[in-house]
Amino acid sequence: MGASIQINGITHRFSGKGPNVLENLVFDMAAGRSTALIGESGCGKSTLLHMLAGLMLPTEGCVRINGQQVTKPHPEWNMMFQRPGLYPWLNVRQNVALGLQFTGKTEALAQRVDEMLALVGLSDKGAARPQDLSGGQQQRVALARSLAVEPDVILLDEPFSALDAFTRRNLQLEVRHIAREKNITLVLVTHDIDEALTMGDSVVVMGRNPGTFQSVMNIDLAYPRNPIDPKFAKLREDLMARFKHSVEGQPQARQTSFDAIANNTNKIKTPAHERPLDQNNGRSSSLPLNR
Ligand SMILES: Nc1ncnc2c1ncn2[C@@H]1O[C@H](COP(=O)(O)OP(=O)(O)O)[C@@H](O)[C@H]1O
Ligand SMILES: [Mg+2]
Protein backbone atom coordinates (compact mmCIF):
# COMPACT_ATOMS: atom_id res chain seq x y z
CA MET A 1 0.00 0.00 0.00
CA GLY A 2 0.93 3.64 -0.22
CA ALA A 3 1.56 5.40 -3.49
CA SER A 4 3.93 8.12 -4.60
CA ILE A 5 2.41 11.31 -5.96
CA GLN A 6 4.08 13.65 -8.42
CA ILE A 7 2.72 17.11 -9.11
CA ASN A 8 4.24 17.75 -12.49
CA GLY A 9 4.27 21.40 -13.55
CA ILE A 10 0.61 22.15 -12.93
CA THR A 11 -0.84 25.42 -14.15
CA HIS A 12 -4.59 25.93 -14.18
CA ARG A 13 -7.13 28.41 -15.56
CA PHE A 14 -10.85 27.92 -15.18
CA SER A 15 -11.54 29.69 -18.48
CA GLY A 16 -9.51 30.15 -21.64
CA LYS A 17 -8.55 33.76 -21.08
CA GLY A 18 -8.95 33.74 -17.31
CA PRO A 19 -6.11 34.25 -14.86
CA ASN A 20 -3.90 31.42 -13.71
CA VAL A 21 -5.43 30.07 -10.51
CA LEU A 22 -2.49 27.69 -10.04
CA GLU A 23 0.92 28.33 -11.53
CA ASN A 24 3.73 25.92 -12.24
CA LEU A 25 3.32 23.68 -9.22
CA VAL A 26 6.02 21.04 -8.86
CA PHE A 27 6.32 18.63 -5.95
CA ASP A 28 6.94 14.97 -5.22
CA MET A 29 5.45 13.00 -2.34
CA ALA A 30 6.92 9.62 -1.47
CA ALA A 31 4.63 6.67 -0.71
CA GLY A 32 3.36 6.60 2.84
CA ARG A 33 4.32 10.17 3.63
CA SER A 34 2.05 12.92 4.81
CA THR A 35 2.06 16.36 3.21
CA ALA A 36 0.08 19.30 4.56
CA LEU A 37 -0.82 22.07 2.10
CA ILE A 38 -1.39 25.31 3.89
CA GLY A 39 -2.48 28.62 2.45
CA GLU A 40 -4.98 31.43 2.53
CA SER A 41 -8.53 30.89 1.41
CA GLY A 42 -8.73 31.10 -2.38
CA CYS A 43 -5.11 30.12 -3.10
CA GLY A 44 -6.23 26.99 -4.93
CA LYS A 45 -5.82 24.23 -2.34
CA SER A 46 -9.13 22.54 -3.10
CA THR A 47 -8.59 22.89 -6.84
CA LEU A 48 -5.25 21.13 -6.53
CA LEU A 49 -6.70 18.40 -4.32
CA HIS A 50 -9.45 17.77 -6.87
CA MET A 51 -6.72 17.28 -9.46
CA LEU A 52 -4.92 14.78 -7.21
CA ALA A 53 -8.24 12.94 -6.87
CA GLY A 54 -8.74 12.85 -10.64
CA LEU A 55 -11.91 14.93 -10.35
CA MET A 56 -10.47 17.75 -12.47
CA LEU A 57 -7.73 18.00 -15.08
CA PRO A 58 -5.16 20.82 -15.03
CA THR A 59 -4.80 23.16 -17.99
CA GLU A 60 -1.07 22.36 -18.14
CA GLY A 61 1.00 19.68 -16.49
CA CYS A 62 -0.28 16.57 -14.79
CA VAL A 63 -0.50 14.51 -11.62
CA ARG A 64 1.14 11.10 -11.52
CA ILE A 65 0.36 8.49 -8.91
CA ASN A 66 2.90 5.66 -8.86
CA GLY A 67 4.09 7.03 -12.19
CA GLN A 68 0.68 6.78 -13.87
CA GLN A 69 -0.93 9.97 -15.12
CA VAL A 70 -4.16 10.69 -13.25
CA THR A 71 -7.07 11.24 -15.62
CA LYS A 72 -10.04 10.07 -13.56
CA PRO A 73 -10.90 9.08 -9.99
CA HIS A 74 -9.63 5.79 -8.65
CA PRO A 75 -11.32 3.86 -5.80
CA GLU A 76 -8.07 3.54 -3.89
CA TRP A 77 -7.37 7.27 -3.92
CA ASN A 78 -9.89 8.50 -1.46
CA MET A 79 -11.02 12.03 -0.81
CA MET A 80 -12.50 13.22 2.49
CA PHE A 81 -14.27 16.55 2.62
CA GLN A 82 -15.17 19.00 5.35
CA ARG A 83 -18.62 17.43 5.52
CA PRO A 84 -18.67 13.67 5.94
CA GLY A 85 -21.13 13.03 3.08
CA LEU A 86 -23.04 10.16 4.70
CA TYR A 87 -26.39 8.89 3.47
CA PRO A 88 -29.08 9.57 6.10
CA TRP A 89 -31.32 6.71 4.96
CA LEU A 90 -28.53 4.16 5.53
CA ASN A 91 -27.27 3.15 8.94
CA VAL A 92 -23.62 3.46 9.96
CA ARG A 93 -22.71 -0.08 8.87
CA GLN A 94 -24.32 0.42 5.48
CA ASN A 95 -22.52 3.73 5.01
CA VAL A 96 -19.18 2.12 5.85
CA ALA A 97 -19.88 -0.75 3.45
CA LEU A 98 -20.62 1.56 0.50
CA GLY A 99 -17.05 1.98 -0.72
CA LEU A 100 -16.51 -1.78 -0.58
CA GLN A 101 -19.67 -2.36 -2.59
CA PHE A 102 -18.72 0.23 -5.23
CA THR A 103 -15.29 -1.33 -5.66
CA GLY A 104 -16.65 -4.88 -5.70
CA LYS A 105 -14.62 -5.82 -2.61
CA THR A 106 -17.54 -7.64 -1.07
CA GLU A 107 -15.72 -10.73 0.18
CA ALA A 108 -16.01 -10.94 3.97
CA LEU A 109 -17.76 -7.57 3.85
CA ALA A 110 -19.42 -7.82 7.28
CA GLN A 111 -16.14 -8.69 8.93
CA ARG A 112 -14.33 -5.85 7.17
CA VAL A 113 -16.99 -3.37 8.29
CA ASP A 114 -16.65 -4.63 11.87
CA GLU A 115 -12.89 -4.13 11.73
CA MET A 116 -13.23 -0.61 10.40
CA LEU A 117 -15.81 0.37 13.00
CA ALA A 118 -13.52 -0.99 15.73
CA LEU A 119 -10.59 0.93 14.26
CA VAL A 120 -12.43 4.26 14.51
CA GLY A 121 -14.00 3.44 17.90
CA LEU A 122 -17.60 3.06 16.72
CA SER A 123 -18.24 -0.67 17.23
CA ASP A 124 -21.41 0.05 19.17
CA LYS A 125 -22.86 2.46 16.58
CA GLY A 126 -23.31 0.17 13.59
CA ALA A 127 -27.10 0.27 13.70
CA ALA A 128 -27.35 4.02 14.34
CA ARG A 129 -28.37 6.56 11.71
CA PRO A 130 -25.62 9.05 10.87
CA GLN A 131 -27.82 12.01 11.81
CA ASP A 132 -28.05 10.67 15.37
CA LEU A 133 -24.25 10.89 15.77
CA SER A 134 -22.06 13.86 16.73
CA GLY A 135 -20.05 15.68 14.05
CA GLY A 136 -16.87 13.92 15.16
CA GLN A 137 -18.55 10.51 15.05
CA GLN A 138 -19.86 11.25 11.57
CA GLN A 139 -16.33 12.06 10.38
CA ARG A 140 -15.19 8.76 11.93
CA VAL A 141 -17.81 6.94 9.88
CA ALA A 142 -16.55 8.70 6.75
CA LEU A 143 -13.02 7.72 7.73
CA ALA A 144 -14.04 4.08 8.26
CA ARG A 145 -15.69 4.11 4.83
CA SER A 146 -12.50 5.51 3.27
CA LEU A 147 -10.22 3.05 5.06
CA ALA A 148 -12.38 0.00 4.30
CA VAL A 149 -11.20 -0.13 0.67
CA GLU A 150 -7.54 -0.17 1.80
CA PRO A 151 -6.70 3.04 0.00
CA ASP A 152 -3.20 3.92 -1.16
CA VAL A 153 -3.89 7.62 -0.85
CA ILE A 154 -6.22 9.70 1.30
CA LEU A 155 -6.82 13.32 0.32
CA LEU A 156 -8.25 15.44 3.10
CA ASP A 157 -9.84 18.82 2.39
CA GLU A 158 -10.13 20.58 5.76
CA PRO A 159 -11.96 17.54 7.13
CA PHE A 160 -11.89 18.55 10.78
CA SER A 161 -12.58 22.28 10.52
CA ALA A 162 -16.24 21.98 11.53
CA LEU A 163 -15.40 20.01 14.71
CA ASP A 164 -14.77 21.21 18.24
CA ALA A 165 -11.14 21.56 19.29
CA PHE A 166 -11.00 18.39 21.40
CA THR A 167 -12.59 16.14 18.76
CA ARG A 168 -10.48 17.75 16.08
CA ARG A 169 -7.25 17.02 17.89
CA ASN A 170 -8.20 13.40 18.59
CA LEU A 171 -9.06 12.81 14.95
CA GLN A 172 -5.88 14.48 13.73
CA LEU A 173 -3.82 12.14 15.89
CA GLU A 174 -5.85 9.08 14.97
CA VAL A 175 -5.88 9.65 11.24
CA ARG A 176 -2.13 10.22 11.24
CA HIS A 177 -1.60 7.11 13.36
CA ILE A 178 -3.76 4.90 11.14
CA ALA A 179 -2.16 6.21 7.96
CA ARG A 180 1.29 5.44 9.37
CA GLU A 181 0.25 1.95 10.41
CA LYS A 182 -1.16 1.23 6.97
CA ASN A 183 1.45 3.17 5.00
CA ILE A 184 -1.19 5.37 3.36
CA THR A 185 0.00 8.52 1.57
CA LEU A 186 -1.83 11.50 3.08
CA VAL A 187 -2.38 14.91 1.56
CA LEU A 188 -4.02 17.31 3.96
CA VAL A 189 -5.36 20.71 2.94
CA THR A 190 -5.74 23.06 5.86
CA HIS A 191 -5.47 26.68 6.94
CA ASP A 192 -4.72 25.59 10.51
CA ILE A 193 -1.00 25.75 11.29
CA ASP A 194 -1.23 23.40 14.30
CA GLU A 195 -3.12 20.86 12.23
CA ALA A 196 -0.40 20.98 9.57
CA LEU A 197 2.29 20.51 12.24
CA THR A 198 0.36 17.71 13.98
CA MET A 199 -0.15 15.67 10.83
CA GLY A 200 2.47 16.56 8.22
CA ASP A 201 5.87 15.05 7.54
CA SER A 202 6.21 18.09 5.32
CA VAL A 203 4.29 21.33 5.17
CA VAL A 204 3.97 23.17 1.86
CA VAL A 205 3.09 26.85 2.15
CA MET A 206 1.07 28.18 -0.77
CA GLY A 207 0.78 31.77 -1.98
CA ARG A 208 -2.22 33.09 -3.90
CA ASN A 209 -3.07 35.01 -7.07
CA PRO A 210 -1.88 32.85 -8.67
CA GLY A 211 -1.61 29.83 -6.41
CA THR A 212 2.06 28.82 -6.09
CA PHE A 213 4.20 26.69 -3.81
CA GLN A 214 6.18 29.20 -1.76
CA SER A 215 8.19 27.03 0.59
CA VAL A 216 8.43 23.56 2.06
CA MET A 217 9.24 22.69 5.63
CA ASN A 218 10.23 19.23 6.83
CA ILE A 219 8.70 18.48 10.21
CA ASP A 220 11.26 16.36 11.94
CA LEU A 221 9.27 15.62 15.11
CA ALA A 222 8.26 12.22 16.48
CA TYR A 223 4.60 11.18 16.46
CA PRO A 224 2.27 11.70 18.23
CA ARG A 225 3.04 15.39 18.20
CA ASN A 226 2.33 17.64 21.10
CA PRO A 227 1.60 21.36 20.60
CA ILE A 228 3.17 22.26 23.94
CA ASP A 229 6.49 20.66 23.01
CA PRO A 230 8.98 23.58 22.68
CA LYS A 231 10.18 22.21 19.32
CA PHE A 232 6.59 22.23 18.08
CA ALA A 233 6.24 25.83 19.29
CA LYS A 234 9.42 26.81 17.46
CA LEU A 235 8.19 25.22 14.25
CA ARG A 236 4.85 26.99 14.65
CA GLU A 237 6.64 30.31 14.91
CA ASP A 238 8.72 29.52 11.84
CA LEU A 239 5.69 28.43 9.86
CA MET A 240 3.73 31.51 10.91
CA ALA A 241 6.57 33.67 9.58
CA ARG A 242 6.54 31.83 6.26
CA PHE A 243 2.78 32.01 6.08
CA LYS A 244 2.89 35.74 6.70
CA HIS A 245 5.44 36.16 3.93
CA SER A 246 3.30 34.14 1.56
CA VAL A 247 0.27 36.30 2.38
CA GLU A 248 2.23 39.52 1.96
CA GLY A 249 3.82 38.22 -1.21
CA GLN A 250 7.27 38.91 0.18
CA PRO A 251 10.23 36.76 -0.67
CA GLN A 252 11.32 34.34 2.01
CA ALA A 253 13.26 36.39 4.54
CA ARG A 254 14.93 33.77 6.62
CA GLN A 255 16.17 30.25 6.12
CA THR A 256 16.19 27.72 8.90
CA SER A 257 17.49 24.25 9.52
CA PHE A 258 14.22 22.88 8.16
CA ASP A 259 14.72 24.54 4.88
CA ALA A 260 13.85 22.86 1.72
CA ILE A 261 12.76 26.13 0.22
CA ALA A 262 12.59 26.48 -3.48
CA ASN A 263 11.47 29.96 -4.27
CA ASN A 264 12.77 29.23 -7.72
CA THR A 265 9.64 27.20 -8.51
CA ASN A 266 8.16 30.04 -10.50
CA LYS A 267 11.33 30.64 -12.45
CA ILE A 268 11.16 27.31 -14.23
CA LYS A 269 10.41 28.05 -17.83
CA THR A 270 9.92 24.55 -19.12
CA PRO A 271 7.01 22.82 -17.39
CA ALA A 272 8.33 19.83 -15.49
CA HIS A 273 6.14 17.37 -17.35
CA GLU A 274 7.84 18.38 -20.58
CA ARG A 275 11.31 17.69 -19.25
CA PRO A 276 12.87 14.29 -19.69
CA LEU A 277 12.22 12.06 -16.74
CA ASP A 278 15.87 11.23 -16.20
CA GLN A 279 16.59 14.86 -15.40
CA ASN A 280 16.98 15.37 -11.65
CA ASN A 281 17.68 11.69 -11.12
CA GLY A 282 14.52 10.60 -12.78
CA ARG A 283 12.35 13.08 -10.97
CA SER A 284 10.97 16.33 -12.18
CA SER A 285 10.63 18.18 -8.91
CA SER A 286 12.47 21.39 -8.28
CA LEU A 287 11.28 21.30 -4.69
CA PRO A 288 13.35 18.84 -2.73
CA LEU A 289 11.47 15.73 -1.81
CA ASN A 290 11.34 14.98 1.85
CA ARG A 291 12.00 11.36 2.52
N1 LIG B 1 -15.31 26.19 -10.79
C1 LIG B 1 -14.66 27.35 -10.70
N2 LIG B 1 -14.75 28.29 -11.65
C2 LIG B 1 -14.08 29.45 -11.58
N3 LIG B 1 -13.26 29.79 -10.56
C3 LIG B 1 -13.13 28.89 -9.56
C4 LIG B 1 -13.82 27.64 -9.57
N4 LIG B 1 -13.47 26.95 -8.44
C5 LIG B 1 -12.61 27.75 -7.76
N5 LIG B 1 -12.41 28.91 -8.44
C6 LIG B 1 -11.52 30.01 -8.02
O1 LIG B 1 -10.21 29.46 -7.93
C7 LIG B 1 -9.52 30.00 -6.82
C8 LIG B 1 -9.06 28.89 -5.92
O2 LIG B 1 -10.19 28.27 -5.31
P1 LIG B 1 -10.08 27.05 -4.30
O3 LIG B 1 -9.27 25.98 -4.93
O4 LIG B 1 -11.44 26.69 -3.83
O5 LIG B 1 -9.22 27.71 -3.11
P2 LIG B 1 -8.99 27.23 -1.59
O6 LIG B 1 -9.44 25.82 -1.48
O7 LIG B 1 -7.52 27.42 -1.36
O8 LIG B 1 -9.79 28.16 -0.73
C9 LIG B 1 -10.49 30.99 -6.15
O9 LIG B 1 -10.19 32.26 -6.62
C10 LIG B 1 -11.84 30.52 -6.63
O10 LIG B 1 -12.74 31.59 -6.68
MG1 LIG C 1 -10.90 24.93 -0.22
UniProtKB/TrEMBL annotation:
Polar residues bias locations: 278-291
Q: Which UniProt keywords apply?
A: ATP-binding, Nucleotide-binding, Transport
Which GO molecular function terms does the record list? ATP binding
Q: Would I find Transferase among this entry's keywords?
A: no
Limits of the ABC transporter domain: 5-233
Region named Disordered: 268-291
Entry-linked Gene3D superfamilies: P-loop containing nucleotide triphosphate hydrolases
Q: Which SMART domains match?
A: AAA
* Name by which UniProt lists this protein: ABC transporter ATP-binding protein
Q: Per the UniProt entry, what species is this protein from, by scientific name?
A: Vreelandella neptunia
